[in-house]
Amino acid sequence: MQKFRKLPWRPILTIFGVLGLIIVSNLFFQLTQNEFSFDLAFKFAFSWHTEKFFLGCLVLLIFYVWISSFLGSLKTGSLFYVLVVIGVGIANFLKMKYRMEPIYPDDLKMITEFGMIRDMVGTLVFLLFLLLLAAGIFLIIFSLRKSLKLGKKQQWVRVGLFVLASGLLLYIGSFNQQNNLLRKAYNKTALWIPYSQKMNYYNTGFMGGFLYNLPVDAMEKPENYSEANVKKITKEYQGTNETSDEKPNIVYVMSESFSDPSRLSGLEVLGGDPLEAYREVADRTYSGQMLSQNYGGGTANIEFEALTGFSMELFNAQMTTPYTMLMSEFKSFPSMVSTLKERGYEATAIHPYNTSMYKRKDVYKTFGFDQFLDESSMKHTDKLENNPYISDAAAYQEIFDQLEKNKKPQFLHLVTMQTHMPYENKYADLPYMVKGDNSLSVQSYLQDIAYSSEALKNFLNELDELPERTLVVFWGDHLPGIYSDEIQKENQGHQLHETEFLMYDNRHELNNQQVTTSPFYFGADLFQQARLQTTGFQTLLSDLQKELPAFEKGMYYQAGQWSKEARLNKKQEKIYQDYQMIQYDITAGNQYSLKEKFFE
């Protein structure tokens, strides 16, 4: 009994306390991943995927040691660790709720986007976020000052643990590199699902999914990638020169969350058609549905596809946001902007919000835009009633200002904000009702798109008065993440990913045709429809569009039918592989195709 009492109980209890904290924190992540279902979380941890759960605990333990050694205290280290876990867990729960996808490592870079966070989660949750942030900053300052008083021996132990934990975290950061031991340990039991990150996190746990989305090469290298083979492709697909002297103004409008709710099964819009004004225009020109990569979000990825002609489907699954994960590696990048600037165009980007979201300020510079107008530099900033965002009508007026004052042909790229979430409490009058999901958010959203629809129609009517030929590509980036679980289940697959698009010519020379397409085809499609000079890359895209009109991971549209996998014959496979080769060449290869002027 005497020996039992002399055991070092304090350090033993500390160790068990830390291990308990790590296990509980990992369970908390699982709860946020599974809509706070304790049954699912505990079964994942202690029945179905125990090995993966404790591998995640090991990573969290290393992170905990790193924090505590940095702060020089187990107490404040534990408190700071808890604040981080709570913050990331809540963010994961909210993102799963509104966008049906989990938090990725790259999302953590958005922590300073205060305006965006406030608009997305509401004032109450935003204040909680600020409180957590303030508490974390206070803990860091308080603990670092207190740590200066530690004895010499304690400081050496602290430094040693910090260096060890830092080295281990750096090694964990290379999770996706070949021969990484942690990845190999996961691979023994993990079933990775790259085409669905939501399922990936479910199957491997929050920590496994999070690690899987650490930095990785943009694409796998094609086996036959070489300068000679790239050159062969560029020679095979030659651009056209049908009307090379014509340089019409070109306007891109990516409309936030613009979609047609009446296309969803289980919904019936009452009180009129909120898209009546839109249909009056769309039914008389080239239009239809566009396949969006995500539901409820992913704006920057759709914008990337539309501007570059490159598909998200071809990237490694971990390349979740090229704007933040890829573009910083390039000083310039081939796109619609660079193609048109080679032809004497002036390029302007307009986004009626701040410049920091998705690193747009830096990305637009890489694309080659001559100027970027945001909420602080726009002249027209009117808003509708209580809507916190600048209206579409005001943004369209900004476009007219650019068209009127510049003599050069213009490429104008507008990303709207009027129809961004949250949707409640924007408008006093909500004339539309919805049978099947009549929430206040859905009612408000219908009024939002009605206003957007009218603003678009007025904008296009005014374009008809311009003497210069002006072409417009208008599309919705994704559906809003506001529909009930029942509606989402009833519309699984492409129904939750189809938005509206149209192309418009103020000379009315485009085909009156209804199609289904993907955003990376926009540039090539517009040039063909308007009979403009196309690049070799656009010719390749046009050939691919004929065989595979729309596709994203798990959604392929061929011959009027949807399927979860592409079914390609030899001819189609050849075109697809050529496209894959060029995308790899630009995003991860040696850019041989640029030397061949494939994008000019």
Automatic annotation (TrEMBL):
Pfam families: Sulfatase (PF00884). Signal peptide: none annotated. It comes from the Bacteria. Residues 248-529 form the Sulfatase N-terminal domain. The chain crosses the membrane at residues 12-33, 53-72, 79-100, 120-144, 156-174. Gene3D superfamilies: Alkaline Phosphatase, subunit A. Keywords: Cell membrane, Membrane, Transmembrane, Transmembrane helix. This is Arylsulfatase.
